[in-house]
Design a protein that fits this description.
CATH superfamily: MetI-like
Number of strands: 0
CATH class: Mainly Alpha
Radius of gyration: 27 Å
Structural class: mainly alpha
Number of helices: 16
């Protein structure tokens, strides 16, 4: 009888200890009021700092009616700003894709001297203010800059022209593609590339048929972020553009000019296009994240299920 009681007490103690251990390890065992409080605070924060400002942009944009909204977007200066923004993104994003693929492939697949320095330089735009980046280009290519007299003698204008805007945009956006691809390529390793090399594939065939398909969703994710930053960049572009209305103003700069002129409805009309871009970017970003997670799970499943090789 005493043995049965002792065994029952031991089982009860073990069960309570297991429950306590599970409660300590499981992240969702907080009291209900704690969870509801955290969720409420998060929702209020999102509503106050994201949803309400986003809704107010569209409310102000249509405050004078649809006709005024369309006329504000059809204004020649607005059309010029939209075209320049699209042109800048169309040049900067492909350049960053080429650089990101080359840099991430070199860093993830090879060992070479200066690898740490290259990684540090890729992160440089994240630590340097965009305004400082624009100022560097002015000091380099401006009329009083290092190369300014030579450019002027050859009738080449970079600052206060489209080339300067493109250069500044490329600088502030080039980490996005590389930073998305480097950890993805490092996690995948080089086994498939090495197998393709053993089978006689050339370097271009390995890249096109092995490496690129494996990173396509990560590449899309980086392109989406890069494009959104390129279209919405303000600081660096503001320094190098010269604010020439109808010529070197991108959409963010045009919004600033309209707002400073107290033309609020037109300013919010143009800003609504950037807000729509943000929403589309968010949707594509979620799609790319989902596909990237599926790809990571599918690539990890065979490795996890494969039997260990006996020694």
């Amino acid at each position: 009888m005493n043995g049965d009681l002792a065994a029952r007490d031991k089982r009860a103690f073990d069960a309570s200890a297991a429950r306590a251990r599970a409660e300590r390890l499981h992240p969702t065992t907080e009291p209900r009021w704690v969870r509801y409080t955290l969720i409420t605070v998060a929702l209020l924060f999102l509503a106050g700092f994201l949803v309400v400002p986003l809704v107010s942009v569209f409310v102000q944009a249509f405050s004078k009616g649809v006709a005024f909204y369309l006329s504000a977007l059809a204004d020649p200066d607005a059309v010029s700003a939209i075209e320049l923004t699209l042109l800048t993104a169309a040049i900067a994003v492909p350049l960053n894709v080429v650089f990101g693929l080359a840099a991430s492939w070199a860093i993830a697949k090879f060992e070479f001297r200066g690898k740490s320095l290259l990684i540090t330089l890729i992160d440089l735009p994240f630590s340097v203010s965009p305004v400082i980046a624009g100022l560097v280009y002015v000091l380099l290519f401006g009329a009083q800059g290092w190369l300014g007299p030579w450019l002027d003698s050859h009738n080449v204008q970079i600052i206060f022209a489209v080339p300067g805007i493109v250069l500044a945009t490329v600088f502030v956006t080039f980490p996005f593609v590389a930073r998305e691809l480097i950890p993805l390529m490092q996690a995948q390793g080089a086994d498939e590339e090495e197998a393709a090399r053993v089978l006689g594939a050339s370097g271009w065939q390995i890249f096109r048929r092995v490496t690129l398909p494996n990173v396509k969703w990560g590449l899309l994710y980086g392109v989406i972020l890069c494009n959104a930053r390129a279209m919405g960049e303000f600081g660096a572009v503001s320094v190098v553009s010269g604010h020439i209305r109808g010529s070197t103003n991108t959409m963010p700069l045009h919004v600033e000019i309209l707002y400073n002129e107290y033309n609020f409805a037109a300013a919010f009309a143009v800003a609504s296009l950037l807000a729509l871009l943000a929403l589309v970017t968010l949707g594509l970003k979620l799609l790319a994240e989902r596909k990237l997670d599926q790809q990571s799970g599918e690539s990890a499943a065979p490795r996890a299920a494969s039997p260990a090789v006996p020694e």
